[in-house]
Every structure is written in structure tokens, then in C-alpha cells.
Write a structure and sequence with these properties.
It is built from 9 helices and 6 strands, in the order αααααααααββββββ. It is of the alpha+beta class.
């Protein structure tokens, strides 16, 4: 019996030891997890740090937006070219089919009327002279038929060439569409990251760092904002170099407070280059869609030469643009956190200016 009980005590002792070891291991794992969690916790950002990150994300999104806008224009141009090629190919194919049908009718008639050797037909003819006249006529018809065959072959080559060009254009269009999708993904990713950062700030903190979605836009719509140095619409248009620049400035003033939407060209929402393009379109001037092209759409001017209506560009990559209104101020569509507004030209790294001519 004693021998029987000893294993029981060892078993009990072993079970206790196992439980103790498991408890220690569990506690150790919990402690390690706690330390690991503490080590991986992201430090709380200050409002100023959030603003710096959000500003960078908005700038990167703006750069991607300009690429998106350019790709969209190129895709539209490719669609127009492809549509033209397809229409032309359809017209030429219809003409080719008509020519083929005519040749088929001639061939069928010859088949039905043929079968006798020409020399035998001459011998059997009741009027050899008339036969010879008919033979000469048939010869001329044969020459015209040969020309018709050659024309059909040429038309066929033209149609095949058009179809080949259309296939190349379709490939180009698909590449543009893929580029659009990539840029869209980049833009939405940047803007989502900015929104997540801003959601961690209180309205008071956002207002304090200038990311409250306000700015001078709504207060200045009527031009009655009383702050020193703010250019009123009448003064800005009077100083513009010509009537087109004045009209563009007037349009920009009328859109103060409109929301920023990437890829938008109005009339109710804009991105930065979309606002500039729409403003000058209202004045009867056609400008390119992107900042990269807009900077070359006129005569370059220095910062000291700026007049209302001039386009002012920012950042080394020429990724942002505004419309100068005088007194060191511009109207621009900044980012999704703020509407179209009046802002100092000095608030971003200046890259150059253009006067639309």
C-alpha cells in the first residue's frame, strides 16, 4: 500500500510544481506583454506636430492630384482619338464592303456567262464583227475591274491600318486609366491619413493651429473684411493688367468659401489648378489643367512685378497655384481642411509666377 501511495504524493507534488511554473510563466508573459505594449505605443503628438504632418500629407496629396489631373486629361484625349479612329474605320469598312459586293456581282456574272473559248465563240458567232466589238468592250471592262480590285485591296490595307492604330490607342488609354487608379489611391491614402490625425485634435486645437476649415475666405466674400492689407475686389480688378485678368480675379472672389475637392474644376468645388483654370475660362482664356503646364501658359514675371490676375506657384515641384490679388495676397484652394480663401503669398515656398497673355 505504501508503494501505492508514494507515486500519488509525487504526482501531487509534480502537479503543484507544474501549476506554479505555469503561473510564473503566465505572469512573466503578461509582464512581457505589458512592457512590449508600452514600448510599441506611439507617442502622443502635439498639435504643432500634427499640423506639420497634416501639411506634409496635404502637399503630397496635392502633388498626386496634379498628376491625376494630367493623367485624366491624357485619358480623355486618348478616348477622343480612339472614338475618331473607330468612326473612321467603320466608315471605311462600310465602303470596303460595298466595293467587295460590286466585285462579287461582276465575278458571278462572268462565271454564269463564261465557259466557251473566245476563238470558238468567234467561229460560232452569227456576226463576227459585232463579236469583235463586244470583245474589245469586255477587255476594257476587265481593265476597269482590275483597277477596282486594286482599289479594294488599298481600302483593305487602310482599314487594317486604322484598326491597328486603334488597338495602340486602346492600349494607351488603358495605361492612362491604370495611372488614374494609382494616383487616386495615393491621394485618398494621404487624405485619409490626414483626417485620422486631425480627428485626434479638439476643435479648439484645430483652430489654434489654423486647421479649422475657416481662414479668410468666408469673411472676405464681400470684400468688407477690415484687416489691414487685405485687398478688396474693386481695388484688385482695377490694378489688373488687362480685362481678362480682372475678370479672372473677380471670378476667384466670387468662389471664396467654396470647398476644396481634388480633381474638381467647379462651379461649386475646386482643387488649386481647377480654380485657376475655371477663373480664366470665365474670362475667355483656355488654360492647361495642371500646375506644371499652367506655369508655362504665359510670360514669367518676378515677384516684385506681380499684378492682380498673375498666377503664383509654390514648392519646388510646382505642385500648388493661386491667383494673385495684390498687397502680397492671393486667392487659392488650399486643401480639404479649408475652403477657397485669401491667404498671404508668403505662407508657402514661392516657386515662380506667370502673367497670362
Amino acid at each position: 500500500m505504501a508503494a501505492h501511495r508514494k507515486p500519488g504524493r509525487r504526482s501531487a507534488l509534480g502537479g503543484s510544481t507544474a501549476r506554479t511554473a505555469f503561473t510564473i510563466a503566465l505572469a512573466g508573459a503578461a509582464t512581457a506583454t505589458a512592457f512590449e505594449g508600452t514600448g510599441q505605443a506611439e507617442p502622443q503628438l502635439t498639435p504643432a506636430q500634427v499640423k506639420a504632418k497634416v501639411d506634409r500629407l496635404y502637399q503630397e496629396a496635392e502633388t498626386a492630384t496634379q498628376k491625376y489631373d494630367g493623367a485624366k486629361e491624357r485619358a480623355r484625349a486618348a478616348e477622343r482619338r480612339l472614338s475618331t479612329l473607330r468612326d473612321e474605320a467603320a466608315r471605311k469598312t462600310e465602303k470596303l464592303n460595298s466595293a467587295r459586293d460590286a466585285l462579287g456581282s461582276i465575278a458571278a456574272a462572268q462565271y454564269r456567262g463564261g465557259g466557251l473559248d473566245p476563238a470558238l465563240q468567234l467561229v460560232l458567232s452569227s456576226d463576227p464583227n459585232r463579236y469583235l466589238d463586244d470583245a474589245e468592250f469586255v477587255d476594257r471592262v476587265g481593265t476597269r475591274q482590275a483597277a477596282a480590285v486594286a482599289d479594294v485591296r488599298r481600302q483593305l490595307r487602310d482599314v487594317e491600318q486604322l484598326r491597328g492604330t486603334a488597338r495602340v490607342e486602346l492600349t494607351s488609354l488603358k495605361a492612362r486609366q491604370a495611372e488614374l487608379a494609382r494616383q487616386k489611391k495615393t491621394i485618398t491614402g494621404k487624405l485619409d491619413a490626414a483626417r485620422r490625425l486631425l480627428s485626434g485634435l479638439s476643435p479648439e486645437e484645430r483652430a489654434r493651429i489654423g486647421l479649422d476649415g475657416g481662414g479668410t475666405g468666408r469673411a472676405s466674400r464681400s470684400g468688407t473684411d477690415g484687416r489691414v492689407g487685405l485687398q478688396a475686389p474693386g481695388s484688385a480688378t482695377a490694378q489688373a493688367p488687362d480685362s481678362r485678368a480682372a475678370a479672372a480675379v473677380q471670378y476667384a472672389y466670387s468662389k471664396l468659401g467654396s470647398p476644396y475637392v481634388w480633381g474638381a474644376t467647379g462651379p461649386d468645388a475646386f482643387d488649386c489648378s481647377g480654380l485657376v483654370q475655371s477663373a480664366y475660362r470665365s474670362a475667355g482664356v483656355s488654360l492647361p489643367r495642371t500646375t506644371y503646364a499652367q506655369i508655362d501658359a504665359g510670360r514669367r514675371v518676378t515677384r516684385s512685378e506681380l499684378l492682380p490676375g498673375d498666377l503664383v506657384f509654390f514648392y519646388s515641384g510646382i505642385s500648388h497655384v493661386g491667383i494673385y490679388i495684390g498687397n502680397g495676397q492671393m486667392i487659392h484652394a488650399p486643401n480639404p481642411a479649408e475652403p477657397v480663401k485669401i491667404a498671404p503669398v508668403d505662407e508657402m515656398p514661392f516657386a515662380g509666377a506667370t502673367r497670362v497673355v
